[in-house]
Amino acid sequence: xxxxxxxxxxxxxxxxxxxxxxxxxxxxxxxxxxxxxxxxxxxxxxxxxxxxxxxxxxxxxxxxxxxxxxxxxxxxxxxxxxxxxxxxxxxxxxxxxxxxxxxxxxxxxxxxxxxxxxxxxxxxxxxxxxxxxxxxxxxxxxxxxxxxxxxxxxxxxxxxxxxxxxxxxxxxxxxxxxxxxxxxxxxxxxxxxxxxxxxxxxxxxxxxxxxxxxxxxxxxxxxxxxxxxxxxxxxxxxxxxxxxxxxxxxxxxxxxxxxxxxxxxxxxxxxxxxxxxxxxxxxxxxxxxxxxxxxxxxxxxxxxxxxxxxxxxxxxxxxxxxxxxxxxxxxxxxxxxxxxxxxxxxxxxxxxxxxxxxxxxxxxxxxxxxxxxxxxxxxxxxxxxxxxxxxxxxxxxxxxxxxxxxxxxxxxxxxxxxxxxxxxxxxxxxxxxxxxxxxxxxxx
Amino acid sequence: xxxxxxxxxxxxxxxxxxxxxxxxxxxxxxxxxxxxxxxxxxxxxxxxxxxxxxxxxxxxxxxxxxxxxxxxxxxxxxxxxxxxxxxxxxxxxxxxxxxxxxxxxxxxxxxxxxxxxxxxxxxxxxxxxxxxxxxxxxxxxxxxxxxxxxxxxxxxxxxxxxxxxxxxxxxxxxxxxxxxxxxxxxxxxxxxxxxxxxxxxxxxxxxxxxxxxxxxxxxxxxxxxxxxxxxxxxxxxxxxxxxxxxxxxxxxxxxxxxxxxxxxxxxxxxxxxx
Lengths: 444, 274
Fold this sequence. Notes:
The complex is a heterodimer.
Chain A: H1 2-16, H2 22-28, H3 30-34, H4 38-63, H5 72-83, H6 87-112, H7 119-122, H8 125-142, H9 147-162, E1 164-165, E2 174-175, H10 189-203, H11 220-229, H12 231-244, H13 251-269, H14 278-294, H15 297-302, H16 308-319, H17 324-327, H18 330-352, H19 356-359, H20 367-388, H21 392-408, H22 415-422, H23 424-443
Antiparallel strand pairs in A: 1-2
Helix pairs in contact in A: 1-4, 1-18, 2-16, 4-5, 4-6, 4-14, 4-16, 4-18, 5-6, 5-14, 6-11, 6-12, 6-14, 6-18, 8-9, 8-23, 9-22, 10-20, 10-21, 10-22, 12-13, 12-14, 13-14, 20-21
Chain B: H1 2-19, E1 23-29, H2 36-48, E2 52-58, H3 62-72, E3 79-85, E4 105-111, E5 114-118, E6 131-135, E7 150-154, H4 157-165, E8 171-174, H5 178-182, E9 187-192, E10 214-221, H6 225-237, H7 242-248, E11 253-255, H8 261-271
Parallel strand pairs in B: 1-2, 1-3, 6-7, 6-8
Antiparallel strand pairs in B: 3-10, 4-10, 4-11, 5-8, 5-9
Helix pairs in contact in B: 2-7
């Protein structure tokens, strides 16, 4: 229970403060997480991820600030509702919808779980190639206004990932821009992601449209009744989130936006739509929460992380000797994840609605102080983690060397770069295998 | 009385903490976090934790492991163990630091990989144009067999096994067979890669292939080799130890921890010279 509470607390902070998402929270807590058992780390992580989704909608609604990228529909609809004086309904709708979405998703996962063992058979080299390249394409197209910019970021990410000696086959083939023993180990993921993903996030400024908190009322019955009248939107959102959640890389953002657009379409057909639409908000937030869970399934079942925060979590938990394909099964899921997810969602629900007015007080801390704090902690974590590999100077040198590039990229979405960097070896190996398979097929 | 009792207690506590202070032992995992090296080294870490202050370091691949070990062993009082794989390129400079020699060799384990197929497949090694999935440099065992193979390289033995199970390739060739044994009910072994047969599987030499044994060489740097080796030998025999459990569940896997180290080293070096 301790780690559930700590995860919920961390998720609350991560969800409400722009720039401090799941990844940064994991990074800041990295040394501490390394000291936990795999089970405790697992529980902490799912509490963090789930709570972030709930709380992100509060900051989006009250302040018009997207705590997470998936909260953009909540900014669009929720903040508009708040300005219309319906902030209480917006927050309760998002929270109840998220809770419903989590439970529906959990139910669907339990129903479908007997078939999970088939997923690795389906996920062959061809499917992996399609998934990897499709995500990269989607990211390249959608991340920045200019596709060429995204493309160049991808190329740069691949280049950074390529540096060092090949560890895939143990051949020792090296690509070294500078001949130094540390570089044989490649560029440290934490340093690169810290400089080119976290640092630009910290430099972004968000203007909050401050509102009074009195709208966050607690007349529970009224809010529940209002939600039940609009429950069909939440159910649609759950299903959209459940399935789109399997789209690695951008699942929550994609799910919430897709559910939002779909609901907007329905409302427009009924001539009911204007900005600040409750049903569209509920659909988006429900989808968001459903997807936040299903996006983890490829990681849990296949051990394939397809987002920076998942890669970091994967890194932490496998360091403890945990193997997803070996140690993750249905009994582990039911005893460790499902049971705790219920508790976590109830706690996060309470935070994101009845107690929302209290968490809003976090915004009274000046944002520059938070950013400085995050930056200092980031430097400490890099030193600490580097130290455990006997490379503390190397970790910091790489980080500080890349900071100017991070500054230069502060107005761009660097997700394509990070995605290409983290998964460079997977792309490389998959392409190699695909080439062999195609050649053998043609010869046959 | 208390004015004597408190300093005495502090003295005893301090001196005993020094007396029982454990030596630091670094264990460097030179394999992947999801692989057999990590599994056995984490088992050792758990077993040695009562005797040493164990620091576990992930350093996948020989280049990375070499770089880390160079730094640790720069201080001669540090103790460090890692595993050197026979699957690596023995000629590589990046791997040279940790290639087993008389100075650093600890003990090794010997394992035989195999070639296998799915139960419902009719493919054999001699089927013309058969597609074989392999990892590392294991495809060299096919040299000498009179057939046209289509070989497909995968990241690791898990990838190879999965490719056979999902029908992507007809046969799988792996030097670490644990993935095969996990799926024993769905897969059939055809030949062993080592010189000996196993159950009803003959050696690859019987069809003209190049025999290849897999060696996991434990290498050590530090001042107290004999003490650690003796301790590990005792732990390996203890049925309640983690490493005993790990070794026991692996088939076609033999530990030379009790054997004469020079002859074990010689066996490895003669098959995999630098």
